[in-house]
Amino acid sequence: MKAALVLCCLAAFVALHAADYVCNRDGNNMPDCTNSTNLGVKIRNFWDPTRYWLCNSTTSAAPASVICVKNFDNGTIEYQGFFAPKGDCVSWSEWTWTQPCA
Q1: What is the DSSP string of 34-91?
Q2: Best label site of 11, 41, 68, 91, fewest CB within 10 Å?
Q3: Could you tell me the pLDDT band of residue 61, with boundaries at 50, 70 and 90?
Q4: Which helix (H) or strand (E) holds 19?
Q5: How many domains is the chain partitioned into structurally?
Q6: Which of 26, 71, 64 minimizes the C-alpha distance to 46?
Q7: CA 33 centroid distance within chain
Q8: What angle do CA 36, 85, 102 make, to 5 degrees?
Q9: 86 lies in some domain
Q10: Which residues touch 28 (CB under 8 Å, ≥6 apart)?
Q11: Can the keyword Signal be found in this entry's annotation (predicted)?
């Protein structure tokens, strides 16, 4: 009987812990910048493929919304898309849509 109670408590703990890390495909994937693991990491914006989130400081919970743009030496610019599998901006000819939370 005690073993069953321990297993139930353990299962409840695991379920509650996992719920904190569930990906919300309907959200915009904005990270919590007070978490130091997000600092300096480019994170996909689910709502806008031309932008990614970037935490510059752990003192603010709000990340910067950075647009994917490449500046060339001749003064021209190229707007790009954020490609999550690479974790970086790529040209539109290289970009493909990927499932959020995949």
Answers
A1: TSGGGBT-EEE-SS-TTEEEEB--SS-SPPEEEE-EEE-TTS-EEE-EEETTTTEEE-
A2: 11
A3: confident
A4: helix 2-19
A5: 1
A6: 26
A7: 11
A8: 85
A9: yes
A10: 45, 46, 47, 48
A11: yes
Check the CA dihedral 11-12-16-17 and report its sign.
Answer: negative
In this prediction, residue 19 carries a pLDDT of: 45
Instruction: Evaluate whether residue 76 is within a structural domain.
Output: yes
Burial class, 48, CB count within 10 angstroms (exposed 0-12 / middle 13-18 / buried 19+):
middle
C-alpha distances out from residue 34 to 29, 57, 91, Å: 15, 8, 31
Under a CB-based contact definition with an 8 Å cutoff, are residues 30 and 63 in contact? Answer: yes
Residue 45 lies in a domain: yes
pLDDT at 60: 82
Amino acid at 61: A
Q: Which two tokens mark 65? A: 């919304």
Using CA atoms, how far residue 63 sits from 95, 97, 101, in Å, is: 24, 23, 19
